[in-house]
C-alpha cells in the first residue's frame, strides 16, 4: 500500500527521504560570502591606526569622565563596564579576524595552485622548445650554411685566380707568333 506525499503528516518521521528541518523555514538567511567580506572589512579596520587611536581616546575619555568629580560616575574605579565592553569586543573580533584569515588562506591556496599550474605549463613548454631546438640542430648539422658557401666560394675564387695566373703564362708561351 503506497501513501501519497500529501497524506504524510509533518510530525510523522517514518519518511526518511528528507532530513529533519529540510522544509523551508521562515526566518533570516545569510549569504556566507557577504558575511565573509564584511568580516574582512571589520578585521581590516581593527588593524588600523585609526581604530587604535579612536579606542585609546575613548578609553582615556571613559576613565577621565568616571574619575572626575563633577559628573555622576556610571562606571566607578575598577571600570567593570569598560572591561565588559572590551571583553565583548574581543569576543566578536577574534572570530571575525579568524574568518578573515581563513578566507585569505583560501585565496592564497588558490593562487598558489594557479601558480603551480602556470609553472608546470611553462616547464612543459620550455622542455618542448628545448627538444625542438635540439632536433633543429641535429637536422642542420648536415645542411650547408652561408658561412660554408662563402668559404667554398672564396676557395674557388682563389683557385680560379691562381689557375688563371698560371694558365696565362702558358698561353703566352704557346701563343708566340711564328715568324
Detailed description of the structure:
By secondary structure, this protein is mainly alpha-helical. The chain contains 4 helices and no strands. It has helices at residues 32-46, 49-67, 80-140, 146-174. The relative contact order is 0.05.
How would you describe this structure in keywords?
179 residues, mainly alpha, 4 helices
Short description:
The protein is mostly helical and 179 residues long.
Write the layout of secondary structure elements.
Elements (H helix, E strand, L loop, with lengths): L31 H15 L2 H19 L12 H61 L5 H29 L5
Instruction: Report the C-alpha radius of gyration, rounded.
Output: 46 Å
Largest sheet: none
Would you count the extended β strands for me?
0
Shape call: elongated
- Low-pLDDT sequence parts: none
Give the strand content: under 5%
Count of helical stretches: 4
Rounded mean pLDDT is: 82
Distance between the termini: 143 Å
Sequence of secondary-structure elements: HHHH
Structural class: mainly alpha
Instruction: Kindly state the percentage of residues in helix.
Output: 55-70%
Amino acid at each position: 500500500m503506497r501513501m501519497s506525499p500529501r497524506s504524510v503528516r509533518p510530525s510523522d518521521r517514518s519518511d526518511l527521504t528528507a532530513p529533519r528541518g529540510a522544509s523551508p523555514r521562515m526566518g533570516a538567511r545569510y549569504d556566507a560570502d557577504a558575511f565573509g567580506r564584511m568580516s574582512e572589512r571589520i578585521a581590516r579596520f581593527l588593524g588600523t591606526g585609526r581604530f587604535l587611536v579612536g579606542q585609546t581616546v575613548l578609553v582615556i575619555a571613559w576613565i577621565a569622565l568616571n574619575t572626575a568629580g563633577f559628573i555622576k560616575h556610571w562606571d566607578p574605579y575598577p571600570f567593570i563596564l569598560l572591561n565588559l565592553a572590551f571583553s565583548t569586543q574581543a569576543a566578536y573580533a577574534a572570530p571575525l579576524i579568524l574568518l578573515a584569515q581563513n578566507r585569505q588562506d583560501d585565496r592564497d591556496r588558490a593562487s598558489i595552485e594557479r601558480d603551480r599550474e602556470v609553472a608546470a605549463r611553462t616547464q612543459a613548454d620550455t622542455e618542448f622548445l628545448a627538444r625542438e631546438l635540439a632536433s633543429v640542430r641535429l637536422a642542420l648539422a648536415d645542411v650547408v650554411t652561408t658561412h660554408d658557401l662563402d668559404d667554398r666560394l672564396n676557395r674557388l675564387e682563389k683557385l680560379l685566380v691562381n689557375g688563371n695566373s698560371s694558365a696565362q703564362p702558358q698561353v703566352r708561351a704557346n701563343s708566340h707568333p711564328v715568324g
